[in-house]
């Protein structure tokens, strides 16, 4: 199993445990994510590209895994992802460069 798949598996289990303890919060969070990524003036792919930029700038490995996997499923190209990562680097500086490089690794794992 790859690095990001392992992270996602572990976090998914942890989130299930968290959902047992705070089901209303986790249901609301899931609804928020669904509503915020639904097609509107921006399509789901564009919204996921924004999310991956924020994940990189905030250095969240779990977010990188989940959102990169979704982007692959939505048919994003490596170049589209790379350009979104360039924006994240501009906003997040050196630490975002490190996470942008890791996000390309995740893309290759899921492709």
> End-to-end distance, in Å?
14 Å
CATH homologous superfamily assignment: AhpD-like
Helix share of residues?
Answer: over 70%
Q: Regarding CATH, which class? A: Mainly Alpha
Main pleated sheet: none
CATH architecture: Up-down Bundle
Structural class: mainly alpha
Number of strands: 0
β-strand amount: under 5%
- Order of helical and strand elements: HHHHH
Shape field: globular
How many domains, as an integer? 1
Protein name: Alkylhydroperoxidase
Domain Carboxymuconolactone decarboxylase-like: 23-105
Keywords: Oxidoreductase, Peroxidase
GO molecular function: peroxiredoxin activity
Write the layout of secondary structure elements.
Blueprint: H1 3-21, H2 23-37, H3 44-57, H4 61-73, H5 78-110
Question: What are its keywords?
Answer:
globular, AhpD-like
Structural commentary:
By secondary structure, this protein is an all-alpha fold. The protein has a single domain, classed as Up-down Bundle (AhpD-like). Helices cover 85% and strands 0% of the residues. The protein is built from five helices and no strands. It has helices at 3-21, 23-37, 44-57, 61-73, 78-110. α1 packs across α2, α3 crosses α5 and α4 (61-73) packs across α5 (78-110). It is globular, with a radius of gyration of 14 Å. This is Alkylhydroperoxidase.
